[in-house]
Known about the structure:
Elements: H1 7-12, H2 20-25, H3 30-39, H4 48-59, E1 64-70, H5 76-85, E2 89-94, H6 101-115, H7 119-144, H8 151-159, H9 168-183, E3 192-198, H10 206-211, E4 215-220, H11 221-226, H12 237-242, H13 250-263, E5 268-274, H14 282-289, E6 294-299, H15 307-326
Parallel strand pairs: 1-2, 3-4, 3-5, 5-6
Helix pairs in contact: 3-4, 7-8, 7-9
InterPro entries: FldB/FldC_alpha/beta
Organism: Clostridium fungisolvens
Pfam families: HGD-D
Amino acid sequence: MTTTVPIEVLIAAGYTPVDLNNVFVVSDNYLKYIDMAEKDGFPKSMCTWIKGLYGACLENGIKEVIGVMEGDCSNTKALIEVLQLKGIKVHPFSFPHSHTLEDVEREIKKLMDHFNVEESEVETVRKRLNEVRALGKEIDELTYIDCKANGFENHLHQVSLSDFNGDIDVFEADLKKAINEIKTRESINKKLRLGYIGVPPMTADIYDFVENFNAHFVYNEVQREFAFPRGIEAKNIYEQYYDYTYPYNTEFRILELKKQVEERKLDGIIHYTQAFCYRAVEDIIIKNKLDIPILNIEGDKLNTLDARTKLRLEAFLDMLLDLKEAN
């Protein structure tokens, strides 16, 4: 998968979904994937994630890919065409720009027909997956309510729900073990409550770096969406993916952001964007619509923070502390 899709359909059809993003970003040889793409002609001025997905797909012998043609990266269509050129079978899927329940239902039904599965089979799988997603929601609550889980744990466990690490039962056991361990801890006592919004970072060390200061990440926006915390209440798979904010317009996304800013009592937000990604422009809208201090940082090839970004983060945190103490 090039991004989160209705994996309930794939599992019902007998597939084991693999999120190429997770394969790419956790690899010790992640730069090798990027180099493979650039050697094959991908320009340097293209998003690193697209190049990483390409390399991860070829290097790991992936034979079939679901490419999201609408509602994700604007470069995915070109990526899919190159993968087809390499002999990889591509299954297209779209999150409709119209964002009506009827159109979302039509797209998911097309996917069901494509893989020859019935709605009842898909709903059985959805029920099972939502049992595991409930554990992701519990870890999220242990982060922002009990303040026992740190920002990286919150990120890792929720982002992994995009494909359940390839084994639902094993992943469920791992989550239960993590929850039991986290519950035994003392609460994290930091003055600043931060939100992380935007795509999951290339630079995962941002969590440790920021939390070395008097700050605690209590919200990971897109990672939480991958975990479908509201999907448990959805009547069916169509409602679940209609209510999924990531692939639709910024205004719909902001409605949920406003709720979380208030519920989690955030002091500030760090908005991560990827170099050469169209989503960076959304920062203009987000800063205009949210009444909270926001710092936009940009990642590229490195999987660690550079000195300039660290300096900007430190200055932002100092400012937030000054504001909080003044109030």
